[in-house]
């Protein structure tokens, strides 16, 4: 087999424009001017080819520079003049592929498709849009300047405020000490007087309680001692269902014995000293069977056999007796004085803590990154909403992002303020509510220049990874200066 | 896309272990032990078959013999039909002699493309114990008692049927009268044996043999009861391959290419199922079934096609051949060496035994023989073999527009952008979500101006909503699948409560096809193509996530009879719809998840819901090789993996592998992070872009491959042994493959790998030559090599889409062999239209050849130095290294 390396040249393409080959921009034209040897040097210097091999639809140069007007080189670029609009470099693969990529249609010269030259219309529209954009930008930029000034003022104000607060706090420290001392001073005598009064009462009460308990123990003993032999024995305990420890409906001998501290029977002394204390809370007077809760039939009137259900034992008239008597006048005066001292101290202490809180808030405010010129500070402490078909999205800049169903229901936290990204063009809110079978929710907020602060779109490009579009004058940069206003460098 | 609701409960309980423990919930799927007929067949022991041939009944015609078989234990008679077919093929059919009612057979023209052309059989010998028939150069020996059939190619026995005596044919029988006390048995399984005993007593045949087996008249699996109104009806038989050590085929399983013995596992199962997060390397059933198996050794390739659409299980054993027997019927090579043998045992829940024996003898012959039966892969339209960008879901029109624009601004070519289920109005297929896709035609046209297409998903389940006209139309025409009681079958799928059109019915298929008319499918255009998912079918609340077995289909058949065909018919009807909407001018493209033998005629298949894991990237090669061997050549795996988030390295390697697999589509689950190629870090993005571009440069080669496949049934993605049948070291090689016979591909499928050992086959060729060579493959390299002596057509001017490359020039890569020669071809026709090439080979095109790149020329030709030096890709570099010229 003969090995020939050949190429088929399908007609030499004639450049449409005089002076430079097809697909070459004016700025590059000089590089393509024929020299005396009629030799073209690849722009990367990698080789030379005869001039007639330029744009012959066969790629010779490694950098693709010999085929600016065809699709032969995969790495080449085609320049569309786009008179009336902006010039554009498109990949060589766009040349003659049947898709109009240049508004002047120059990329489709083989006629696979008829491209309408709409550069003029596009240019007009573009200029209008640019004008509008510039106007918005100018307006926005002015606002932004205002916001920055405002932010700086605000920052200054907050710094001053911190200073004030710190000063106040220092002063407050001394006062606090003083008040604390006063408090201690007043509380000493107060405590002494109160303790004395309470001790006296306690002693009095103990005596009385003892007496009363003895009476109750006697009563119970007498009730329990059915056979009146001066002893309470196991058999006398058994009818009392309240002693059914395991709730099996029967008080067994063991259970009865347990309540009698392992005695078969006890006399009153033993009963009052060792037994009564343990059982007094559960002990119930035995109610004869026929008196047991026979709930009165609702309709029938109670017959003569009906015994009125035992009414609640009237609460002992000891209620008042159990209450400690009022302090005497002298103690009362001491308490009043101490209360006053405490109140004064508490107030000052609260103020001190409030100051700490305020300082923390202000510091956090001041330490937040509001952009290169603090231009975004103005958005703080405000919230903005956007509602789509299903949800209302809320953005509180530098705080939170959230979502709630339009139809009602509770709010979902989409993220808390995280950080800036992409040179202050994107805000990230993260560590929001966890997604079932997914990540914690997060939001990327894309900021662009606009006349007002407005949340304009919210979407979820990936499950639980949200994106907001937010327009704001804060994102309006200084518009380009008028001298580079004219975008068409080639006409 | 798509999985099932099991996911819900599954994820809930595993939330904390998400990274560790995802895998299939085996409890949702039957083991052989839980399937009555599987258990009955599997418990049979090899030995003498109770079946004998009744020679008196023998009828011989020119290409067919017909004879009765008698079960000497039950006295039930069967009829055996043996046909000679053109192309070294025979057909063995066994049916009941007098069934109570006809047993289900797949209509000719559906799976079989037509009545197979018959070939004369010569009676060579008719002895007392056997009859020997001649079919071309082969002998077929039918032994009478016990009954068995042996196929002898030349002098080599290659296929034996019923040599193990495992033929078991459950004839239709009358259901025994239920005893009053048994009408509501407390435990249906317990009630079983008694009833069977009753039944057997009432059988006309005096038998009682030992068929007291469970599950004959009803079965219960989990909470699902199968009343089995027809009773036992399964069929099974053994097929042995004497002289062979390897068998292949019977997709779909997540398994190596060379099939394994099933001694210690369940048999390989063929039963189309929606398996959530399937496990690798096991015999469990997956989405599709092709009951075709090849046996290959150094001398020959043979195989069988088991023409049965019911649930089927296949046991495989590796044994040694009975040389004693074979020496009686063939002049066997003398000697004491043992002869290897593969024993296989096939059993299906209903239908008949219908085996096509394809006798090769070369790999390419068996593919041709199989294609003559079930058809070959239709030549895909060009865009379909380019790169597809898919995700569950592209959210709305803007999303589609943005992805399209980003692909262009990153200069990454793609041909098709896909819309999964969320594009519909509440999962009502053929409709659009009016808010997200208010002007679908504008959207489609927006990508179509750049030569691109779109695909929407159309699943077979219809939302039971009386305001949904596709549903009401089907309902009013009484076209739905019926439950066991004759009511419209209802189950759960994506839309909630759903019903399923009965695709088994040809009228229903016509009706379905008509739904793709532009007038019917609002918002569609000629640039919109279709994807059929969930067509196993997937029924979230059904037994094994699919239809109940007693679901009633057209013609009085149960799902039990036709289960594995449902998805096949869905895709067939859809493809016909696409043809119809264009007055038969447009070549359809329909992707399907479920499939059967013959599905290759209707479009592409993908391997379903795989995972973004290295192991799943690795298994994609054997799975696709097996699909190719089974005729489903247009197949691929979700690039990147459907579930989970692949890391950048895995995603990059997966793109590289996918770019050299037949169907090349990236896809991702709705819960995954966005992963369009332009979102990758720049380094990876560039490598992925290069891989996709490389695919585009090779499109003329791929198109030609598919054309050859269409003409001859050949594999597109081929095991090495297809081209090097005598090279034993390739018989189990499934991590390396050939495209046609020209390109050798060894994708990197290991994490962190920067090189791989490549086996270069062909002793006398210009590869390294039957040896392993270590090849460097850092992240930006794909180990692909061109065979010496071949010419591969490429188009190096990569455009935004394949159709924009239509009139671009070719570059021919010519790799010389040792003699300094090379040959190759390429095919060219209208890339979309259904008319094929002018048979005269004439035609005109604007394309031309711009470059011939010759590799392996001893001296560099003068004029081409600069061009040769300018070739950078690993592919070429490696080729220069390995080519010996």
From TrEMBL, chain A:
The keyword Thylakoid does not apply. Keywords: Calcium, Disulfide bond, Endoplasmic reticulum, Signal. Residues 381-478 form the MRH domain. One of its GO terms (biological process) is N-glycan processing. Residues 212-247 form the EF-hand domain. Residues 181-207, 288-324 are annotated as: Disordered. The keyword Methyltransferase does not apply. Residues 1-16 form the signal peptide. GO terms for molecular function: calcium ion binding. GO terms for cellular component: glucosidase II complex. This is Glucosidase 2 subunit beta. It comes from Magallana gigas (Pacific oyster).
Automatic annotation (TrEMBL), chain B:
CDD domains: GH31_GANC_GANAB_alpha, GH31_N. GO terms for biological process: carbohydrate metabolic process; N-glycan processing. Its EC number is 3.2.1.207. Pathway: Glycan metabolism; N-glycan metabolism. It comes from the Eukaryota. Residues 1-23 form the signal peptide. Residues 81-315 form the Glycoside hydrolase family 31 N-terminal domain. Keywords: Endoplasmic reticulum, Glycoprotein, Glycosidase, Golgi apparatus, Hydrolase, Signal. Pfam families: Gal_mutarotas_2, Glyco_hydro_31_2nd, Glyco_hydro_31_3rd. Residues 175-215 are annotated as: Disordered. One of its GO terms (molecular function) is carbohydrate binding. Residues 713-792 form the Glycosyl hydrolase family 31 C-terminal domain. Belongs to the glycosyl hydrolase 31 family. This is Neutral alpha-glucosidase AB. It comes from Magallana gigas.
């Amino acid at each position: 087999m003969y090995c020939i390396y050949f190429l088929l040249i399908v007609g030499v393409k004639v450049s449409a424009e005089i002076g430079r080959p097809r697909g070459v921009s004016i700025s590059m034209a000089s590089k393509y001017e024929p020299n005396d040897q009629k030799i073209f040097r690849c722009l990367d210097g990698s080789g030379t080819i005869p001039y007639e091999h330029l744009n012959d639809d066969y790629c010779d140069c490694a950098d693709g520079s010999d085929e600016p007007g065809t699709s032969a080189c995969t790495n080449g670029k085609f320049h569309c003049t786009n008179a009336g609009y902006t010039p554009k470099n498109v990949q060589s693969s766009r040349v003659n592929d049947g898709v109009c990529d240049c508004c002047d249609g120059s990329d489709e010269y083989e006629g696979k498709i008829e491209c309408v030259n709409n550069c003029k219309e596009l240019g007009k529209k573009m200029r209008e849009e640019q004008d509008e954009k510039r106007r918005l930008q100018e307006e926005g930029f002015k606002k932004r300047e205002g916001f920055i000034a405002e932010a700086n003022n605000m920052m200054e104000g907050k710094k001053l405020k911190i200073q004030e607060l710190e000063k106040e706090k220092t002063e407050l420290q001394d006062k606090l000490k003083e008040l604390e001392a006063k408090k201690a001073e007043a509380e000493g005598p107060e405590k002494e007087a109160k303790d004395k009064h309470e001790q006296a009462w306690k002693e009095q009460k103990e005596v009385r309680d003892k007496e009363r308990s003895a009476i109750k123990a006697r009563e119970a003993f007498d009730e329990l001692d059915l056979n009146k032999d001066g002893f309470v024995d196991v058999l006398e305990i058994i009818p009392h269902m309240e002693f059914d420890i395991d709730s099996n409906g029967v008080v067994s001998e063991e259970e009865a014995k347990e309540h009698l501290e392992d005695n078969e029977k006890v006399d009153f002394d033993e009963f009052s000293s060792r037994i009564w204390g343990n059982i007094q809370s559960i002990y119930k007077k035995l109610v004869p069977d026929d008196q047991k809760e026979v709930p009165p039939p609702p309709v029938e009137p109670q017959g003569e056999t009906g015994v009125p259900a035992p009414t609640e034992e009237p609460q002992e008239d000891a209620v008042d007796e159990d209450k400690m008597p009022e302090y005497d006048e002298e103690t009362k005066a001491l308490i009043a004085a101490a209360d006053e001292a405490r109140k004064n101290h508490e107030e000052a202490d609260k103020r001190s803590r409030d100051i700490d809180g305020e300082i923390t808030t202000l510091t956090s405010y001041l330490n937040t990154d509001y952009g290169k010129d603090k231009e975004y500070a103005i958005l703080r402490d405000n919230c903005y909403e956007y509602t789509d078909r299903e949800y209302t999205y809320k953005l509180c800049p530098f705080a939170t992002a959230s979502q709630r169903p339009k139809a009602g229901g509770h709010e979902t936290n989409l993220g808390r303020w995280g950080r800036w990204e992409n040179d202050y063009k994107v805000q990230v809110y993260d560590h929001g509510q966890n997604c079932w079978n997914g990540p914690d929710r997060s939001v990327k907020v894309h900021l662009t220049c606009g006349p007002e602060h407005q949340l304009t779109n919210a979407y979820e490009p990936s499950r639980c990874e949200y994106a907001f579009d937010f327009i704001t004058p804060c994102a309006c940069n200084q518009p380009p200066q008028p001298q580079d206003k004219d975008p068409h460098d080639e006409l | 896309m798509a999985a099932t609701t099991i996911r819900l409960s599954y994820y809930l309980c595993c939330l904390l272990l998400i990274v560790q423990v995802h895998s299939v919930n085996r409890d949702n799927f039957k083991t052989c032990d839980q399937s009555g007929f599987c258990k009955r067949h599997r418990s049979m022991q090899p030995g003498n078959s109770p079946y004998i041939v009744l020679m008196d009944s023998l009828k011989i015609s020119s290409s067919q013999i017909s004879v009765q078989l008698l079960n000497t234990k039950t006295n039930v008679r069967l009829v055996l039909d043996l046909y000679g077919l053109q192309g070294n093929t025979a057909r063995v059919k066994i049916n009941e002699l007098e069934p109570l009612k006809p047993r289900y057979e797949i209509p000719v023209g559906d799976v079989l493309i037509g009545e197979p052309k018959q070939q004369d059989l010569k009676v060579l010998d008719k002895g007392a114990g056997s009859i020997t028939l001649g079919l071309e150069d082969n002998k077929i020996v039918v032994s009478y008692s016990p009954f068995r059939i042996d196929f002898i190619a030349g002098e080599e026995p290659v296929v034996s049927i019923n040599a193990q005596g495992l033929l078991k044919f459950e004839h239709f029988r009358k259901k025994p009268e239920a005893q009053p006390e048994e009408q509501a048995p407390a435990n249906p399984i317990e009630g079983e044996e008694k009833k069977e005993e009753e039944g057997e007593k009432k059988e006309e045949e005096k038998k009682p043999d030992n068929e007291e087996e469970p599950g004959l008249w009803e079965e219960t699996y989990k909470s699902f009861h199968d009343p089995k109104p027809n009773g036992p009806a399964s069929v099974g038989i053994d097929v042995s391959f004497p002289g062979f050590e390897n068998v292949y085929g019977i997709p779909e399983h997540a398994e190596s290419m060379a099939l394994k013995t099933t001694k210690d596992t369940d048999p390989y199962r063929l039963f189309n199922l929606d398996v959530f997060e399937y496990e690798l390397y096991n015999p469990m059933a997956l989405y599709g079934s092709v009951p075709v198996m090849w046996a290959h050794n150094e001398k020959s390739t043979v195989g069988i096609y088991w023409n049965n659409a019911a649930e089927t299980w296949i046991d495989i054993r590796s044994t040694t051949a009975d040389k004693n027997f074979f020496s009686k019927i063939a002049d066997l090579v003398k000697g004491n060496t043992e002869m290897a043998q593969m024993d296989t045992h096939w059993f299906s829940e209903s239908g008949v035994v219908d085996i096509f024996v394809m006798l090769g003898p070369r790999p390419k012959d068996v593919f041709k023989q199989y294609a003559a039966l079930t058809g070959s892969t239709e030549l895909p339209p060009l865009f379909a073999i380019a790169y597809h960008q898919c995700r569950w879901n592209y959210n709305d029109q803007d999303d589609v527009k943005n992805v399209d624009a980003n692909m262009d601004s990153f200069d990454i070519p793609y041909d098709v952008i896909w819309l999964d289920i969320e594009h519909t109005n509440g999962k009502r297929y053929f409709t659009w979500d009016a808010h997200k896709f208010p002007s679908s035609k504008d959207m489609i046209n927006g990508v179509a101006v750049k030569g691109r297409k779109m695909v929407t998903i159309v699943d077979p389940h219809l939302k039971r909503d009386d305001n949904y006209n596709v549903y009401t139309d089907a309902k009013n025409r009484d076209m739905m699948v019926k439950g066991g009681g004759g009511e419209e079958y209802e189950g759960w799928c994506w839309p909630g409560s759903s019903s399923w059109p009965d695709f088994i019915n040809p009228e229903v298929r016509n009706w379905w096809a008509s739904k793709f008319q532009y007038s019917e499918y609002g918002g569609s255009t000629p640039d919109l193509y279709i994807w059929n998912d969930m067509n196993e079918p997937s029924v979230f609340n059904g037994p094994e996530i699919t239809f109940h077995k007693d679901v009633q289909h057209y013609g009085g058949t149960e799902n039990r009879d036709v289960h594995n065909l449902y998805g096949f018919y869905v895709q067939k009807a859809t493809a016909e719809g696409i043809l119809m909407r264009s007055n038969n001018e447009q070549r359809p493209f329909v992707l399907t998840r479920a499939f059967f033998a013959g599905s290759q005629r209707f479009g592409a298949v993908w391997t379903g819901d795989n995972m973004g894991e290295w192991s799943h990237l690795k298994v994609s090669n054997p799975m696709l090789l097996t699909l190719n061997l089974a005729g489903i050549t247009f197949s691929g795996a979700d690039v990147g993996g459907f579930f989970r988030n692949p890391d950048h390295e895995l995603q990059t390697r997966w793109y590289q592998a996918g770019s050299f697999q037949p169907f090349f589509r990236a896809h991702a689950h709705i819960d995954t992070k966005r992963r369009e190629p332009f979102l990758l870090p720049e380094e990876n993005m560039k490598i992925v872009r290069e891989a996709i571009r490389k695919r585009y440069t090779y499109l003329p080669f791929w198109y030609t491959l598919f054309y050859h496949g269409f003409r001859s049934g050949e594999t597109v993605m081929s095991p090495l042994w297809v081209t090097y049948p005598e090279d034993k070291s390739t018989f189990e090689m499934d991590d390396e493959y050939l495209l046609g016979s020209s390109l050798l591909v060894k994708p990197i499928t290991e994490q962190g790998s920067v090189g791989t050992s490549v086996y270069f086959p062909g002793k006398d060729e210009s590869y390294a030559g039957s040896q392993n060579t270590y090849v460097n493959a850092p992240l930006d390299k794909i180990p692909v090599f061109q065979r010496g002596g071949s010419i591969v057509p490429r188009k190096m001017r990569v455009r935004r889409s394949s159709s924009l490359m239509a009139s671009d020039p070719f570059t021919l890569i010519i790799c010389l062999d040792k003699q300094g020669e090379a040959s190759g071809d390429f095919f060219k026709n209208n890339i979309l239209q259904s008319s094929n090439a002018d048979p005269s080979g004439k035609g005109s095109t604007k394309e031309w050849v711009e470059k011939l790149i010759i590799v392996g020329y001893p001296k560099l030709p003068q004029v081409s130095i600069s061009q040769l030096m300018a070739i950078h890709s690993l592919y070429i570099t490696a080729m220069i290294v390995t080519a010996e010229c």
